[in-house]
């Protein structure tokens, strides 16, 4: 088994489900207009439940694409997370 620490620096972002309309532009921008010059697909995870929407993604891109003026109730974690890749 091989465990690798991926170079991605990730943040967790969340907002109430009822604010999806206000944040949808930022979500689409984040998905469709990624910086492909890095040579790889950045990690992105979207979780939608009955109360809130949570997104794990590139820390720099999330802070750039999701601004308080567009999504007032947004919360971006101050913690930076790292991802592991586990192969057999």
Write a brief caption for the model.
The chain is an alpha+beta fold. The protein has helices at 20-32, 59-65; strands at residues 2-5, 10-16, 44-48, 52-58, 75-76, 84-87.
Alpha plus pi helix count: 2
Instruction: Give me the CATH architecture, please.
Output: 2-Layer Sandwich
Distance between the termini: 4 Å
The biggest sheet amounts to: 4 strands, antiparallel
- By DSSP, the count of extended strands is 6
Question: Helical content, roughly?
Answer: 10-25%
SSE series: EEHEEHEE
What is the typical, i.e. mean, pLDDT? Answer: 88
* Structural classification: alpha+beta
Low-confidence stretches: none
Q: If you consult CATH, what is the topology?
A: Alpha-Beta Plaits
Structure description:
Helix content is 23%, strand content 33%. It is of the alpha+beta class and 88 residues long. The chain has one domain: Alpha-Beta Plaits.
Please give a handful of descriptors for the protein shown.
88 residues, single chain, Alpha-Beta Plaits, 6 strands, four-stranded antiparallel beta sheet, two-stranded antiparallel ribbon, alpha+beta
């Amino acid at each position: 088994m091989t465990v690798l620490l991926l170079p991605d620096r990730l943040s967790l972002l969340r907002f109430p489900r009822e604010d999806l309309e206000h944040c949808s532009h930022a979500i689409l921008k984040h998905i469709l207009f990624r910086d492909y010059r890095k040579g790889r697909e950045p990690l992105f995870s979207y979780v939608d439940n009955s109360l809130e929407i949570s997104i794990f993604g590139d820390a720099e891109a999330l802070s750039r694409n999701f601004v308080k003026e567009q999504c007032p109730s947004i919360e971006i974690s101050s913690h930076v997370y790292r991802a592991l890749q586990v192969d057999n």
